[in-house]
Amino acid sequence: MTFGRMPIANAFLTADEFADEYFFELAPAFCESCGTFQITEQPDAEQMFHGAYPFFTRSSRRMVAHFADYANWLRDTYLPADPFVVEIGSNDGAMLENFARAGKRHLGVEPSSNTADVAREHGVESLVAFFGAETAVRVRDTHGPADAIIAANVMCHIPDLHGIAEGAAKLLTEDGVLVFEEPYLGAMVEKTSYDQIYDEHVFIFSLQAVSSLFAPHGLELIEALPQDTHGGSMRYVLARKGRRPVTPSVGNLLAREHELGLHLASTYDRFRDNCETSRRELRALLDRLHTEGKRVAGYAATSKSTTVINYCGLTPEHIAYISDTTPLKQGKFSPGGHIPVVPHETFAADYPEYAVLFAWNHRDEILANEQAFARAGNKWISFVPEVTIEDGTNA
Question: What is the pLDDT of residues 94-110, one digit of tens each?
């Protein structure tokens, strides 16, 4: 399967950068032997994660609250009284701040210096680096072994998962846990949420894949917990083999994956067909609205929107602008499609007749906040799990 020529998902750019824009082929594949679903080509990490990385966790109140719950769950379920917690890809510190405020030893390992700077402002100790075996040894030599290594929406970004697993095995205490949550393959397939696939997401995980990838490093999956974040995620807990009991959740969810056919290549043939149907329907709808002279905007300049815009061939003729609250994106253009990104105030000052809900995974939060848009008679366009138009007044 291919989504075609694709730019860096978060590389929002100025007009004078159009000519030198980087593209690659976004082509996912499935391995029947180990169950991994991944893209076959990924840009260099430095092109995606750098000192001007434009994503900040704190921009979503819902995610900040979710990470507070995550931290409390970890403390109550797996941590000793005086833990040392390391987070891989700690971004702006929204997760680790919960440990910092409680006076617990912690360290964020974050490759983007700008987000690490924000984390430090919130009292979170941060190391600007990519996590791997070498970094793990460096952290252990400086701080000692970790009782927990945690991550959220990060593991799927890292092509060298064996390096991550090796690093975790070196850094964890004997009874330590590796805990991460990521967009879940089962949810993506069921919802045809193909916008989960972009340059940063080299993997979309299943339990089968996680078990296969980490087992060679002596780590076994002991618990799996479904999450409703990002349109359907899974939290995975791994420990050294035999050190902790495996909970019934693992067997139950593996059986569910088998029912969904996540181990079969034919499942991904159907997924490809569903993606192509979604593309045709969204493009046809926006073509019709353009012909009718309707004003259409995008809501949230997300990484996911880059896949949708470029896969569907959308241009400023289809979507006049994208409203976003991130200052680093405002005044720039979307990758590939070159649709202007404007502050939310522009959207609120003169509502368009339709808005494409690119941040569909935050649907409830957005529709609750945008009741004035709906009351004015305007409509939302969604494309997950299918292309629909709704007024949003019942949110």
Answer: 999 999 999 999 999 99
**pLDDT for residue 92:** 87
Among the listed residues 326, 279, 309, 306, the one whose alpha carbon sits nearest the alpha carbon of residue 43: 306
| 5-26+285-390: CATH superfamily | NAD(P)-binding Rossmann-like Domain (3.40.50.720)
C-alpha to C-alpha distance for 251 and 389, rounded to whole angstroms? 39
Report residue 234's pLDDT band, with 50, 70 and 90 as the boundaries. Answer: very high
State the SS3 of the chain. Answer: CCCCEEECCCCCECHHHHHHCCEEECCEEECCCCCCEEECCCCCHHHHCCCCCCCCHHHCHHHHHHHHHHHHHHHHHCCCCCCEEEEECCCCCCCCHHHHHCCCEEEEECCCHHHHHHHHHCCCCEECCCCCHHHHHHHHHHHCCEEEEEEECCHHHCCCHHHHHHHHHHHEEEEEEEEEEEEEHHHHHHHCCHHHCCCCCCEEECHHHHHHHHHHHCEEEEEEEEECHHHCEEEEEEEECCCCCCCHHHHHHHHHHHHHCCCCHHHHHHHHHHHHHHHHHHHHHHHHHHHCCCCEEEECCCHHHHHHHHHCCCCCCCCCCEECCCCCCCCCECCCCCCEEECHHHHHHCCCCEEEECCHHHHHHHHHHCHHHHHCCCEEEECCCCCEEECCCCC
pLDDT (mean) for 292-318: 97
Count the alpha carbons within 13 Å of 163 in the hemisphere toward its beta carbon.
Answer: 12
| Architecture of the CATH domain 33-263 | 3-Layer(aba) Sandwich (3.40)
What is residue 318's predicted lDDT score, i.e. its pLDDT?
98
pTM here is 0.90
Mean pLDDT of the chain: 93
d(CA 374, CA 352): 11
Residue of higher predicted confidence among 41 and 249: 249
Write the CB contacts of 33 (distance below 8 Å, at least 6 apart in sequence).
Answer: none
The half-sphere exposure of 55 on its side-chain side, counting CA atoms within 13 A, is 22
Domain with CATH 3.40.50.150 in the chain: 33-263
